[in-house]
Amino acid sequence: MNTKSLISGGVCVFIGGCFAISAATSLKIGTSTNMGPGYFPFSLAIILMGTGIYIAVKALTESRGDFRFDVNAVPWRGLILVCFAPVFLGLTIRGLGLLPSVFVTSMISGYASRTQTFRLAFFVSALLAVFCALIFSYFLKLPIPVIGPWLNI
Amino acid sequence: MELFSHLALGFSVALSSQNLLYCFIGVIIGTAIGVLPGLGPVATMAMLLPITFNLDPTASLIMLAGIYYGAQYGGSTTAILINMPGESSAAVTTIDGYQMARRGRAGPALATAALGSFFAGCAATVVVALVAIPLTRVALAFGPAEYFSLVLLGLVSSVVLASGSLPKAIAMILVGLLLGLVGSDLYTGVARFTLGITELSDGVNFTAVAVGFFGISEIFRNLQSEGKNEVEVFPIGRLWPSREDFRRMTGPVLRGTAVGSILGTLPGGMAVLSAFAAYAMEKSISKNKDEFGKGAIEGVAAPESANNASAQTSFIPMLTLGIPSNPVMALMIGAMIMQGVVPGPNVITQRPDLFWGIVASMWIGNALLVILNLPLVGIWVKLLKVPYNALIPVIIVFCSVGVYSIASAPLDLWLVAIFGATGYFLIKLDFEPAPLLLGFVLGPLLEEHFRRAMILSGGNLKIFVTEPISAVLLLVAAIVLMAVTLPSLYRKRAKVFVDD
């Protein structure tokens, strides 16, 4: 049994299943002569599930079972910080303004690496904040405040 | 001749001060990211895509194109000097290029790579200019059934040439297609798969998908292999190749250009594959077989010409048919759509300035690249000292601000995070993100042509095999798909990608 392929197959069936159920319950499927908005996606979702089942069944017959999901090999710290950084920017760019928001986002993402030093992170973030303000606000003239209303008390 | 007036138009567009500037910026960025290991053209283009949204369409496409072929030049520098391909298509160059550097011939190796790339880039651009109009004429005669089959063939070929498992690549295409269908239905306006979120009714933001799956998940991949960054750079020495070197590189450059030009036009044709093919061919016909792997100049000239030629000709299906043959071209299509240019055979007739401007800019860009890369190679080498720790914040901030700037929707940034994390785990399970991006771009197109064909035929699926052109395209797709499942070819394919 090939565990990795088995999981992969399961993921396909899951994604296909979500789309198929959503299409079947909320969209009109129709017939091939009179197709509804759900017809094409529903067909694709079924084919995806089929592919997933094929991958999974084939995995059962394979003998290589050397896959172990190593939780320690996943760079969790990086994963969380790197994913949080864009979300933070989205939440604060209006309120804080481009300059401070970019600075903090850059600091957050800088620490994704275990070998980061404060000096490098600070230096890069400061430079990046000024550079972004120049490019996006002055050069491309995007309607984003450089310093936002939250800081103008 | 008609061609000359087209080219005159192209040069008048490409030589305007604005477009010249963006071409220059593009090739500089391209060379830089080509040199930097861990940052490829796909991630960079995804990152800069939102910024180009604010530019004029021609300027933005010229710049994006410059990044792509610029990276082919930069990638070879790293390959030769530190035995690490700065860009995947330069992987083959490491074999003989690095050996040349170890023997104190880094200079001639770099010069061979740059000159070979330059010749190949210019020659392949001629191919683009010559083939474009006839191919467009053929494509204009296509009906919905033919188009559906053509898109299907494009998707199938990309699967075949993707690395890794075939069913997994197919699954990724399907996921991409489904993701591309999120949003309002074209015919009825019904919202599909939007989970009640109004921002999604226009579809999932293309840049969020590209940035998430290529920009962000790339960082995770690099974080995992952190700490392997010790590099020793060989001194470059005398740059110019000797007369003997020139004599030996001529044949490989010509053959490499031919191989690359042909493979580049095929759907799914990636620069890396052309480089492998050209290297293998040179090795089998060369008189100095035993020198290969020990610093043969042919082993640098052939793959470097091939990868640049195919980078150039892979624009052909994208510009004339609107079908992307690799993730880079999918990004170009995405950029066009964002700019309001409908990709397909009509581009060349409706926007000749755009089309010929891009073609002309390729010559200009290649000329700029030789100037940038040969005398200034010492400056690029310094880039190798940039620590990855400094790059991560730059990548993330540019991705985030860029994506946000398109619609000012925080939701798009949440999608970036979700797609980034999903992309990482999918890669862990050996799913490649490239087919997903192709599927995402082609999803709406495939559905539209399918539904139109069905209306035309009264719901009869037979239309795809009774229309002769469509039948041939489907037959080719079937043959390609069957050929991969043949055991002998499957092993060869696996071997090519293991070497990668």
UniProtKB/TrEMBL annotation, chain B:
UniProt domain DUF112: residue ranges: 20-438
InterPro entries linked to this entry: DUF112_TM (IPR002823)
Sorted UniProt keywords: Membrane, Transmembrane, Transmembrane helix
Pfam families the UniProt entry points to: TctA
Keyword Membrane in record: yes
Positions of transmembrane segments: 20-39, 109-133, 139-162, 169-191, 253-280, 323-342, 354-380, 469-490
PANTHER family: TRICARBOXYLIC TRANSPORT PROTEIN (PTHR35342:SF5)
Protein name: DUF112 domain-containing protein
Annotated source species: Phyllobacterium sophorae
Lineage of the organism: Bacteria, Pseudomonadati, Pseudomonadota, Alphaproteobacteria, Hyphomicrobiales
